[in-house]
Amino acid sequence: MKAILITGGAGFIGSHVVRLMVNKYPEYQIFNLDKLTYAGNLGNLQDIENKENYTFLKGDITDENFINNIFNQYSFDGVIHLAAESHVDRSITDPLAFAKTNILGTMVLLNAFKTLWKGQWEGKRFYHVSTDEVYGTLGETGLFEETTPYDPNSPYSASKASSDHFVRAYGETYGIPYVITNCSNNYGQNQFPEKLIPLFINNILTSKPLPVYGDGNYTRDWLYVVDHARAIDLVYHKGVDHETYNIGGFNEWKNIDLIKVLCEQMDQKLNKPKGTSAQLITYVKDRPGHDLRYAIDASKINKELGWEPSVTFEQGLSITIDWYLNNKEWLENVTSGNYQKYYELQYQK
Ligand code: NAD
Ligand code: DAU
Q: Comparing C-alpha atoms, which of 128, 86, 132 is closest to residue 109?
């Protein structure tokens, strides 16, 4: 039986990866290691928490003793590393927290993996889940390719870029068999309502303003989270050692256009007159260092591994909105307490 450690499995993308791996591979023992920060929520995994091939471990990836102990205890054959501080706005307020978790945490995991296997790499793999933000920003044209030079602009993307470099360096220096993927913006069920889509759904439900940064003409490439989880499964099993793969939705939207579509779908689903939700749109102060445009060239993973998204954006967005409408308790739980403080600090400036 293979033992696979998934870090950050109680978070948004991680919970979808854990669910897929636990259900698809009964022959694997899946360990979900998560610190349960504000972004981690075991409620995301209620449907699989009693499965025999699933174990939850509460802990911090920066805690060297703890990490070394669990590597010794469970001898993980593979690591799928998603644990991170993930929100750009929070990285602007508290950059050191991002350096600690995203850089140091990744190094602690790499060290533990190296120490455990001592060069016996047959059947082993370290999978680092990264972001397209490491490439910086595009102008009006062009796409991020795997060979695009790194040029990060936010403390978040700089910390992710740094962690990517360490993974690569451990591969070159110690031979660790790694793969890295750099993915575009995800959306879907269980995303914490600090990110654009769930934040705006929550604000429409609670009749709060929809805070559009700057002129709203920033562009992102959106991918449904389950399709990202499918890509991670594929790259974990079929990707080539020491390679990186870009993952994207072939789906670019200017923020303001996406927000208008979201408002229309919300009006329809809530049986409100057309234009009701859009009245909440409010232009606010821009994010410092705001990247103009991200767009991914995902042709490598498509050609070499046969991956492509399984749903259109309209389908994915509809599934996502329905999930939030049917899980208002989840939303209420995650937006009580500290969320209110965060919201005031971020938006009442
Ligand atoms: P998230 O913020 O929803 O979840 C992060 C998880 O990591 C949480 O469960 C949190 O409790 C856990 N965590 C944080 N610090 C930890 C620590 N020190 N020790 C152990 N666990 C800790 O993030 P997400 O959006 O699911 O992103 C997951 C990964 O995917 C991140 O590495 C992120 O950089 C990357 N990524 C995200 C996106 C996106 O659009 N969300 C796109 C591309 C790549
Ligand atoms: O590209 C991948 C990245 O996508 C991931 O690595 C990050 O973890 C993830 O958070 C996401 O980063 P973004 O900064 O692109 O996502 P966010 O949802 O925060 O913002 C999307 C766009 O919407 C961006 O241009 C900023 C804008 N925005 C965001 C918020 C929260 C607003 O206009 N208003 C807002 O309130």
A: 128
